[in-house]
Amino acid sequence: MRSFMFFALAFTLGFAGCTVLQKGQEISKYDAGSQPTMTETAWRGSYVLYSAKDLNPVHSVVLDKGVPIGFKKDDKGNIVAVAGDKTITVPKTTTHYWKRK
Predict the structure, then answer these.
(1) Which of 6, 22, 69, 71 has the smallest number of CB atoms closer than 10 Å to its CB?
(2) Domain residues for 79?
């Protein structure tokens, strides 16, 4: 029974990735290879940037309501995560998420 539970957990994590275990409400997502998009925060609060490959956040920030958040291309064509006036370059080949805690 224990080996079945381990297999089920391993299959679920392998299929869904680490995003299942990352806490928070998804606000913005950059899928590897897709067009990046921006939005605005709907609430004041803590926002956390995650890579789909990691359980630990890449960055966290407290933002007011109505602040720009998401992903865009910089003038060199790199993908950057944006939270207010903060920008963080992220790999084009990895999915990333902004989540509200």
Answers:
(1) 6
(2) 2-100
How many structural domains compose the chain?
1
Closest CA to 43 of 19, 67, 15: 67
CB atoms within 10 A of CB 83: 23
**What's the N-to-C CA distance of the chain in angstroms?**
35
Strand ranges inside the chain, DSSP E? 25-30, 38-40, 45-51, 59-63, 68-73, 79-83, 86-90, 96-100
Please state, as a whole number, how many other Cβ atoms lie within 10 Å of the Cβ of residue 44.
Answer: 11
Q: What is the pLDDT of residues 40-72, one digit of tens each?
A: 999 999 999 999 998 899 999 999 999 999 999
pTM for this structure? 0.77
Contact status, residue 100 vs residue 58, Cβ threshold 8 Å: no
What does the alpha-carbon distance between residue 21 and residue 56 come to, in Å, rounded to a whole number?
10
